[in-house]
Amino acid sequence: MAHEESCCKKKKNMSTLIVPPIPPSPRDDAMQLYRAFKGFGCDTSAVINILAHRDATQRAYIQQEYRTIYSEELSKRLEKELRGKLEVTAVLLWMHDPAGRDATIVRKCLTVDANIQGATEVICSRTPSQLQHLRQIYHSKFGTYMEHDIEATTFGDHKKILLAFLTTPRHEGYEVNREIAQQDAKFLYKAGEKKLGTDEKAFIRIFSERSAAHLAAISSYYHDMYGHSLEKAVKNETSGHFAYALLTIVRCAEHPGKYFAKVLHKAMKGLGTNDATLIRVIVTRTEIDMQYIKAEYLKKYRKTLNDAVHSETSGHYRDFLLQLLGPNV
């Protein structure tokens, strides 16, 4: 009998969202927003000061109240009133519930922007329950299955891993069967670095069927047995979008905070900023694990994430992102 190990810890809230201790009612917020829209030009600071400090549930209630009182969609009004393209994109994404937001991002990445990397990042960094919810919302929102859009826009092993990861049920707990994890590490070594060529099917099967905790254990065993990380093996044995999907899966299994810190750094490195990535990561992770991401960013790049974002952005767009990121620590 293989013994089981549990590393189950109670998860702390690692969100950076700061909500007022006694928030106004959604009705009051809706009326304040309407006032900010009225008159000559929009009071964007007032809009940001409200919306950047309300959680997903509160934002949904505000939108409901706004619709009831003013017979129009708040998102449509925001689109009309906000000036800068980037602040519009960021604020409108923020207004969605998490699954609706992910669905909107993936759909746009696949069908409008041809941003296959962005779609891969979202799909391969989400938990099985998040993916299940995402698939349902995607279908009800766009009248098509996410799998169909993936089929139409991706190729080869990359397509196979996305479809397998999206549709295969996986355990979400922290328990790991160490014997099986060890066998899986050996199996991946034989399927990759030990042989000439790579058995991609083996990588697809293990990476799509095993839980995040189990995959992290495989990675640890792989390092112990073969002297370097599973990540390095993936880099050696695969390439392109397929490699990116596998690396996202294994990095998020081991340490999502570290993974997203790296994605953000890459988006701001060099000439110009990849604003689509900056917005996507900050808006989608603020209410999940942004405190971890900020800590990892500081540790790795010797600069706070807030300072990095401040130097790469400007205006109301900058204000909005920085308010989501919370204090500069």
Automatic annotation (TrEMBL):
SUPFAM superfamilies: Annexin (SSF47874). Keywords: Annexin, Calcium, Calcium/phospholipid-binding, Metal-binding, Repeat. One of its GO terms (molecular function) is calcium-dependent phospholipid binding. One of its GO terms (cellular component) is plasma membrane. GO terms for biological process: response to cold; response to heat; response to salt stress; response to water deprivation. The keyword Repeat applies. PROSITE patterns: ANNEXIN_1, ANNEXIN_2. Belongs to the annexin family. A pair of annexin repeats may form one binding site for calcium and phospholipid. This is Annexin. It comes from Arachis hypogaea (Peanut).
